[in-house]
Amino acid sequence: MTWSHHHSELTTATPAQLWTRWTTAGYWHVDDPGVEWARFDGALVEGATGVVKTHGVPAQTIEFTRVEPGRAMDFTIRLPLATLAITHDMAPAAGGTRTTHGVVLDGPLHRIYALLLGGTLARGLPTVVRNVTAGALRDGDA
What we know:
This protein has 3 helices and 7 strands. The protein is α+β, with helices and mostly antiparallel strands and 142 residues long. It has a domain at 2-24 and 65-136: START domain (Alpha-D-Glucose-1,6-Bisphosphate, Chain A, domain 4). The mean pLDDT is 96.
């Protein structure tokens, strides 16, 4: 069993602009108010790792589990007896690109983590998606 929550927005940002925003660690703290900093340990490919530091929590190792340039990017954080996946998807839509960010908790203790973290993560998704799309439009492919 899993717990998940997703949020989507329609944007006129291009897939290339969104991809740049998603895959540039230096933007993560700008787009997500909960993130202090992030770094990747090399090229962004499936199996690559990095570290993300959120406010009030020790730095966490992340592993990229899905990397489809211009389409999707997911990473996971291993928790005791659970996994937190952060998902990113985009698809063409009438009027632009639909971008969806999600949080998925899986594993034997997913219900406990959903109670402890789920509400905060879910409430933050609209802000993060709006910041990503606004930043993509403002900064372009730079």
